[in-house]
Design a protein that fits this description.
alpha+beta, eight-stranded antiparallel beta sheet, 34% strand, elongated
């Protein structure tokens, strides 16, 4: 049987992608998807994973959530969080995703720090779909995930000589 992607066979390269190129690929993924699975820590220490629709600004992702939700309650007690974002998988060559590890903070609607995030939220289509007035913007809080580390996976990188798993760290930011 012919091998459709021969570059996937054999050992993976281990070369690191230059930071600017890695960030570009991460931003492309975060901008082109809108669903993540957010993992929080429950009161008994067990993990709780919840799918959310997210928006992004830079490498931060954020979503609306009620203060009473389990994930919001978990994050008030323990702000460490992990989130997984992935593109649809057709085969190994299309494997592309990111795991974000960092902290989350909840911003109430009236918080001045929330404004830039709210400008990126596309709430209008939800309002139309639910029969709500566009003159009445949402008042929900936003939960913002700020990654300290992102594990990015893209098997297509093997084709150009780079490791399929790359690590981005916030503290590696050039000054």
């Amino acid at each position: 049987m012919p091998l459709t992607n021969p570059w996937l066979a054999g050992p993976s390269p281990d070369r690191a992608l230059p930071r600017a190129e890695l960030e570009e690929r991460i931003l492309n993924l975060l901008s082109s998807q809108n669903m993540a699975v957010v993992a929080t820590v429950s009161a008994d220490g067990s993990p709780t994973a919840t799918p959310v629709r997210y928006f992004s600004l830079g490498v931060e992702i954020f979503y609306t959530s009620w203060n009473a939700s389990l994930k919001s309650r978990n994050l008030r007690r323990e702000p460490r969080v992990s989130a997984g974002v992935f593109a649809p998988l057709v085969g190994q060559a299309s494997s592309r995703g990111a795991q974000l590890f960092g902290t989350a903070r909840t911003l109430q609607r009236e918080d001045p720090d929330a404004q830039p995030y709210w400008e990126a939220v596309r709430w209008q289509s939800d309002h139309v779909e639910r029969g709500r007035s566009l003159d009445d913007p949402p008042t929900d809080p936003l939960t913002v995930i700020t990654p300290a580390r992102i594990l990015y996976t893209e098997h297509w990188l093997r084709r150009i000589g780079y490791a399929p798993r790359q690590t981005w760290r916030h503290d590696d930011t050039p000054s």
